[in-house]
Write a structure and sequence with these properties.
Structural class: mainly beta
CATH superfamily: Calycin beta-barrel core domain
Order of helices and strands: EEEEEEEEEE
Number of strands: 10
Radius of gyration: 15 Å
CATH topology: Lipocalin
Strand order of the largest sheet: 1-2-3-4-5-6-7-8-9-10
CATH architecture: Beta Barrel
Largest sheet: 10 strands, antiparallel, barrel
Number of domains: 1
Shape: globular
Number of helices: 0
Oligomer: single chain
Mean pLDDT: 91
Low-confidence stretches: none
Length: 134
């Protein structure tokens, strides 16, 4: 079923925020997860697999990636681009899936010697009262 969604992306440390996507998405509900997929403004296919206890985010485009975000766990994730395949270690801080609102917080683990940290909050909302697309 097609519905309207809003995806927000916030930096955990600077609190800089942006709307990553607002528009039509395919929503498929299964017994143990919900799949939300859409095409972003860079013409990449984005797929969220939202389970009750964790989330996976897959991106298929010029840059492809797969993030597995499990609370209180560190996971190795791959990013594939024209420059090669890179592994990124991610530590998921929190995840909640309540009704039509899904929120995940995670940090990018780095061996770099500087003190800067990268971490993000992604919020996905299936908008209530919105129209359904045909």
């Amino acid at each position: 079923m097609k519905k309207e969604i809003l995806v927000k992306h916030t930096h955990r440390y600077s609190l800089e925020s942006l709307v990553m996507y607002h528009g039509e998405a395919d929503i498929d509900e299964y017994s143990d997860y919900t799949r939300v997929s859409f095409i972003d403004e860079e013409n990449a296919k984005i797929v969220f697999y939202c389970f009750s206890t964790y989330m996976e985010i897959h991106r298929f485009g010029e840059v492809s990636s797969e993030l597995i975000l499990k609370p209180q766990q560190q996971t190795m994730n791959k990013i594939k681009s024209e420059f090669g395949v890179f592994e990124v270690e991610v530590k998921t801080i929190a995840y909640e899936y309540i009704d039509n609102h899904i929120r995940v917080e995670y940090d990018i683990e780095s061996d770099s010697e500087d003190d800067s940290k990268d971490g993000f909050i992604i919020e996905l909302e299936i908008l209530e009262g919105s129209y359904e697309y045909n």
